[in-house]
Write a structure and sequence with these properties.
Belongs to the UPF0231 family. This is YacL family protein. The protein has 129 residues and is an alpha+beta fold. The chain is built from 4 helices and 6 strands. It has a 4-stranded antiparallel beta sheet. Strands 1-2 form a two-stranded antiparallel ribbon. Strand 3 and strand 4 form a beta hairpin. Helix 2 packs antiparallel against helix 4. The radius of gyration is 15 Å and the shape is globular.
C-alpha cells in the first residue's frame, strides 16, 4: 500500500494520503483517531495480536473495520442499514448492489500486514519521529 504523510505548518494539520482505492481508509483513520499518535495504539495493539485465522470487528463512529483471515475490510455503516436504521444485512450478506457503492468511497480492502505497517508509520510520523 502506498501512502504519503504531510504536515502543513501554516494550519498545523497532519494529512494522510493513500491511493484512490484506499482513500476511505485515510478518512476513517483521521475521523476516528485524529492527529494524536497515542490514539492509534489500542487499535494497533489489537491488530498486532491477531493470529492468521483470527477475526476482529472494530465499530467506529461511521465505519466498521473487520479482519478475517488476515484480510481487512472497511465499510461505511450506511451499507448495513436502511433508512429506518434497522440492520439490513450482515457484512457477509452484502449484495451486489451494496458492493457497487465502493465507487463512492464507502468501502475498501487491504491486507492486515499492510494496515499494521501503515499505522506504525503514521503513528511515528505523528509523534515527530
Amino acid at each position: 500500500m502506498e501512502y504519503d504523510f504531510t504536515y502543513d505548518r501554516a494550519t498545523r494539520q497532519f494529512s494522510l494520503k493513500l491511493s484512490a482505492e484506499h482513500d476511505v481508509l485515510a478518512r476513517f483513520l483521521l475521523d476516528e483517531f485524529g492527529q494524536q499518535a497515542s490514539a492509534y495504539q489500542p487499535l494497533l495493539s489489537q491488530l498486532q495480536a491477531l493470529k492468521a485465522y483470527d477475526t476482529l470487528r472494530f465499530q467506529g463512529k461511521e465505519y466498521l473495520l473487520e479482519v478475517e483471515h488476515a484480510e481487512v475490510t472497511l465499510r461505511h455503516n450506511t451499507l448495513f442499514y436502511e433508512a429506518g436504521d434497522t440492520p439490513q444485512q450482515t457484512s457477509a450478506e452484502l449484495d451486489e448492489e451494496a458492493l457497487s457503492l465502493d465507487d463512492h468511497g464507502m468501502q475498501t480492502q487491504c491486507g492486515l500486514e499492510d494496515l499494521v505497517k501503515l499505522l506504525q508509520a503514521w503513528q511515528q510520523f505523528l509523534s515527530g519521529g
